């Protein structure tokens, strides 16, 4: 929330500041003159009834909705004071005011809004009750849109009811009409009823067929509701198909359409859609489109209430790989299939089955143009893989060290089946857990995505399973030996130390101390200290003259971080200006013996790494 508010304030630096109450009316007039969506930015810091009315109107606009929505959520009581009279009145803002109040009720502010209405009197309270009870399906235009010529219900994939029956043609026409008069900010309420009654896959196919018909008919802006239909009733298949088009549209002079495509992915709102949206935010040729995608990712993360770890699962890039995690590079006469090693370095395999570290050079038998494109794709893939590899490996190692858990569906969707991450998951030992944290079983992920135990017998992972990457300290010796033998047999190399990981336990003296002395007094190259950043440590705040005297690391289960003191210190403006660092003690928020065995071991492992 604060991040978004800071962004708004930065955009207001050139606007007159409403520093005194007497200037408020003039300031509001000034802001309104800017027109939406700038008005919402300008009025964001003002908490007043008149502003609530303006935010209610802004809530109905696509470009201004995000700012208005945040203001309303931040000031529900003031919103009610300004919007209750509007919503029960007869002015032009009545519908917008009612929609904004219903939005706030949905966000848990119903008691506040009803309490304000009560202060306006019994008649107002009764009228507001009717406004809040309004069925979204009862709000529709008096004049229905005329459906375009490209809409042919008989030619499109037919939506099916949940019982398998096809929708009749008349119902398909009604559905298309609903889609046509809906807006991204306020899809017609009846669409939700259709989605509840119909098979999701059939609606997805219908939406994509409608979208393709719009493209073939010239994709006129007037009928771009056919694009937004993907967001209203489309699903994962539409998200996957739409993303390559979004990436390509700016290159064809269709930047505005590409931005709308991002809106569509956000409207679909599924985890797969979010993953694809983040892929655009991470890498795309067109900076403007990338920035728009990044804005949407932040907004979606807020509204979905995702943690940083949950968001990271959904943000892993797929590098344009096929669903099975590979990619075919075509030379015309020859084809090569891409795979990845334990460090996510790509390799290729030709028709003869030989594994090659590099893509061969084209020869005379190859199609020159096709081969050239394949070579460029290979160079791009190597570059992208190198860029994301360390982050993805660290993410899984961090999950092991923090003892993070996933449920069965999340585990399969974002780890086992992810085009890129799947290559790492096959190289690790996994476990299922009881609710108390005890390990129930251990398993590996085979090349085909199935699961096997240490004897190579197939097992299944239920949807209600709790899955994680077990730390060595949580495994008994026999389990480690069995899996060591199995991984050796298959020549599986882990992306980080798991079964052969160094472990440490506190001494009797350390167990009662809030200080660790493993590196106290030693001098190491500054690069060793900087290397802690790759292990999850962070630089402390700059002190006098910009010097940094501590490195910190968050500890799972603790309210405060561990802190490594630097006797030498580093300059924030020049990290390597001091070639060496004399290290001090490590301060802990609790006694070392109160840390979990894994947390303590990993902390000491970080420190010992600087001695090597």
Helical percentage: 40-55%
Count of helices?
24
Strand content: 5-15%
- Global geometry: globular
* Structural class category: alpha+beta
pLDDT averaged over residues: 86
The major pleated sheet works out as:
6 strands, antiparallel
Number of strands: 16
**Unreliable sequence segments:** 1-22
Q: How many distinct folded domains?
A: 5
Rg over alpha carbons = 29 Å
Spatial order of the strands forming the largest sheet: 5-10-6-7-8-9
What gap, in angstroms, lies between the N and C termini? 43 Å
Assembly form of the protein: single chain
What can be said about this structure in brief?
The protein is an alpha+beta fold and 612 residues long. It folds into five domains: 2-134, no CATH class; 169-314, no CATH class; 327-390, no CATH class; 394-489, no CATH class; 508-609.
What does this structure look like?
This protein has 612 residues and is α+β, with helices and mostly antiparallel strands. It folds into five domains: 2-134, no CATH class; 169-314, no CATH class; 327-390, no CATH class; 394-489, no CATH class; 508-609. The chain is 48% helix and 11% strand. The chain is built from 24 helices and 16 strands. It has helices at 2-11, 24-34, 38-43, 49-59, 65-74, 76-87, 94-119, 122-132, 169-181, 189-197, 200-216, 225-233, 236-248, 255-268, 271-282, 287-304, 308-314, 368-401, 408-416, 422-425, 477-489, 508-511, 526-530, 597-609, and strands spanning 327-330, 335-340, 346-349, 355-356, 406-407, 430-433, 439-445, 451-452, 458-459, 466-468, 515-516, 523-525, 538-539, 547-553, 562-571, 580-587. The protein has a six-stranded antiparallel beta sheet with strand order 5-10-6-7-8-9, covered by helices on one side. Strands 11, 12, 13, 14, 15 and 16 form a six-stranded antiparallel beta sheet that branches. It has a four-stranded antiparallel beta sheet with strand order 1-2-3-4, covered by helices on one side. Helix 13 (236-248) packs antiparallel against helix 14 (255-268), helix 14 packs parallel to helix 16 and helix 15 packs antiparallel against helix 16 (287-304).
């Amino acid at each position: 929330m604060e991040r978004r508010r800071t962004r708004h304030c930065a955009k207001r630096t050139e606007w007159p500041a409403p520093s005194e109450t007497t200037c408020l009316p003039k300031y509001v007039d000034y802001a309104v003159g800017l027109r939406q969506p700038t008005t919402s930015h300008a009025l964001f810091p003002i908490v007043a009834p008149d502003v609530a009315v303006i935010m209610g109107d802004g809530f109905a606009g696509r470009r201004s909705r995000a700012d208005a929505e945040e203001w309303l959520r931040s000031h529900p009581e003031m919103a009610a004071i300004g919007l209750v009279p509007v919503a029960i009145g007869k002015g032009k803002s009545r519908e917008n005011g009612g929609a904004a109040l219903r939005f706030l009720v949905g966000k848990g502010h119903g008691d506040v809004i009803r309490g304000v209405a009560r202060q306006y009197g019994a008649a107002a309270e009764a009228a507001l009750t009717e406004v809040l009870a309004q069925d979204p399906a009862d709000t529709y235009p008096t004049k229905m849109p005329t459906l375009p010529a490209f809409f042919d219900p008989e030619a499109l994939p037919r939506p099916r009811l949940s019982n398998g029956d096809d929708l009749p043609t008349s119902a398909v026409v009604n559905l298309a009409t609903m889609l046509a008069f809906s807006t991204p900010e306020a899809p017609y309420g009846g669409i939700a009823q259709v989605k509840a009654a119909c098979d999701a896959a059939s609606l997805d196919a219908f939406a994509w067929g409608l979208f393709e018909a719009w493209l073939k008919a010239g994709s006129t802006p007037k009928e771009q509701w056919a694009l937004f239909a993907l967001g209203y009733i489309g699903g994962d298949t539409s998200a996957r198909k739409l993303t390559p088009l979004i990436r390509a549209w700016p290159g064809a002079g269709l930047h505005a359409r590409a931005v709308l495509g991002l809106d569509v992915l956000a409207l679909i709102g599924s985890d797969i859609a979010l993953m694809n949206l983040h892929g655009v935010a991470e890498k795309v040729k067109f900076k403007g489109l990338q920035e728009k995608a990044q804005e949407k990712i932040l907004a979606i993360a807020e509204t979905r209430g995702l943690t940083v770890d949950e968001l990271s699962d959904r943000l892993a890039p797929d590098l344009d790989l096929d669903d099975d995690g590979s990619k075919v590079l075509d030379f015309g006469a020859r084809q090569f299939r891409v795979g990845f090693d334990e460090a996510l370095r790509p390799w290729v395999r030709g028709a003869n089955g030989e594994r090659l570290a590099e893509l061969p050079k084209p020869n005379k038998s190859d199609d020159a143009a096709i081969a050239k494109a394949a070579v460029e794709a290979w160079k791009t893939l190597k570059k992208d893989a190198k860029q994301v590899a360390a982050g993805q490996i660290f993410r899984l190692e961090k999950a092991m060290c923090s003892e993070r858990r996933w449920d069965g569906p999340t585990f399969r969707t974002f780890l086992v089946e992810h085009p890129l991450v799947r290559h790492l998951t096959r190289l690790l030992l996994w476990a299922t857990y009881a609710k108390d944290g005890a390990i129930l079983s251990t398993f590996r992920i085979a090349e085909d995505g199935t699961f096997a135990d240490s004897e190579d017998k197939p097992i299944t992972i239920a949807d209600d399973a709790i899955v994680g990457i077990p730390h060595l300290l949580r495994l008994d010796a026999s389990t480690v030996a069995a899996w060591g033998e199995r991984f050796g047999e298959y020549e599986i190399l882990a992306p980080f130390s798991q079964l052969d990981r160094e472990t440490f336990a506190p001494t009797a003296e350390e167990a009662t101390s809030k200080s660790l002395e493993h590196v106290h007094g030693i001098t190491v190259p500054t690069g060793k200290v900087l290397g802690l950043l790759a292990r999850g440590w962070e630089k402390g705040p700059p002190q006098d003259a910009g010097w940094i005297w501590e490195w910190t690391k968050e500890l799972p289960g603790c309210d405060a971080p561990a802190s490594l003191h630097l006797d030498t210190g580093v300059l924030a403006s020049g990290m390597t200006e001091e070639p060496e660092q004399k290290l001090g003690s490590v301060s802990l928020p609790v006694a070392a013996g109160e840390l979990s065995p894994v947390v303590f071991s990993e902390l000491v492992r970080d420190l010992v790494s600087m001695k090597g």
